[in-house]
Amino acid sequence: MSLNVSVNWQRDAFCLQLAQSFPSKGVTALYGPSGCGKTSLLRIVAGLERGAMSNVSFNGVDWQNESLCVPLEKRRIGLVFQEASLLPHLDVRANLEYGWRRTKPAQRRLAPEEIYRMLALESLLQHRTDQLSGGQRQRVALGRALMTSPDLLLLDEPLAALDAVAKRQILPYLARVVRDTETPTLLVTHSTDEVLRLADHIGFMENGSVAPVVRLAEALQDPSSPLFADEGAVSVLQGQFVIEGNGGWGMFSTTSYHLHVRSSPEYMSLHSGSTAFQNHRLQIYARDVSIALTDPTQISIQNHLAAKISGLTEKDDGLVLVRLTLADGQLLMAELTSASVSRLGLILGMPVWALVKSAALLQ
Ligand SMILES: Nc1ncnc2c1ncn2[C@@H]1O[C@H](COP(=O)(O)OP(=O)(O)OP(=O)(O)O)[C@@H](O)[C@H]1O
């Protein structure tokens, strides 16, 4: 069961040409530079580009081929664009209920109260849409898309028009919605941060084509990943987080190891009332990981993980990316100078200790 798309579409000087199967579970990010065709692909999936030569089917049902083009409303898609297009003459509640009323009772999976709670919309319901901030408008737009209980959510850079503060505030809501509603989602984005927080799979786009979709963990194994272009190599570990003390400190655990980490104030307020969280993500920059040959005791770094070296990639800048396989099979990148790699005599298969200086919870 999946979303299958094949397109061969010339528009002026631009050519979109791809045949790709996208997972129908979780979030798939379409990531690529401006002008590579991300929005065009999303519009084809939504049925908004009727002229495009394309075949689209979702979970075995044909949406588009040479003789057929199922309209958007029949595809049961929830769409959210960069700029929220809310109905200006209706208040927030009426905007939200609009989608609910247009959905057949048998197709309603998500209850309005649940959507309001997930997106913290309760206090906004009586507001006029012109009284909302950009971030609030996007939360309402997301809520409105969910009120139709869509089978597929298409998000086209939903946070791109927001400033950094609004983005930071809305991201956790977005993460919660895509996780808790279990609605398969295609997310168009330029942002590595959004990919790391939200994506389960990723398709890298370039010049009108898309590389085979891979799991996020697989994409983060590639030392030359475009995701590392701005901030350097980064790893994402999956595990559970339990708040243990004051100030947001807690334990991030997998089946094989634990890390002491601190959650941010935003994280604490979003999750107030709970102390234990499954399937959470921990982001660790490669530059924040050092390597020791034995487990050091007289050192301020608290998180020491047993690991095995599974990759060594020399970069142009005299640094080496060391890929470490942890005891549960998850991967952690460390960035060392080549002088350190030689001094320690690091080779493939060698058991070492990864010392994690800093880590950030992502959900
Ligand atoms: N209506 C149109 N007519 C002709 N060309 C278009 C039209 N809309 C988009 N294009 C071109 O198609 C190409 C792909 O555009 P598209 O918006 O799909 O890219 P994108 O990856 O989503 O870009 P961005 O990240 O900047 O939104 C671009 O070269 C663009 O100039």
From TrEMBL:
Keyword terms of this UniProt record: ATP-binding, Cell inner membrane, Cell membrane, Membrane, Molybdenum, Nucleotide-binding, Translocase, Transport
Short name of one Pfam family: TOBE
SMART domains found in the cross-reference section: AAA
Keyword Transport: yes
Domain called ABC transporter: residue spans: 1-232
InterPro entries named among the record's database cross-references: AAA+_ATPase, ABC_transporter-like_ATP-bd, ABC_transporter-like_CS, Mo/tungstate-bd_C_term_dom, ModC_ABC_ATP-bd, Molybdenum_import_ModC, Mop_domain, P-loop_NTPase
Descriptive protein name: Molybdenum import ATP-binding protein ModC
Molecular functions per Gene Ontology: ABC-type transporter activity; ATP binding; ATP hydrolysis activity; molybdate ion transmembrane transporter activity
PROSITE patterns linked to this entry: ABC_TRANSPORTER_1, ABC_TRANSPORTER_2, MOP
Keyword Nucleotide-binding in record: yes
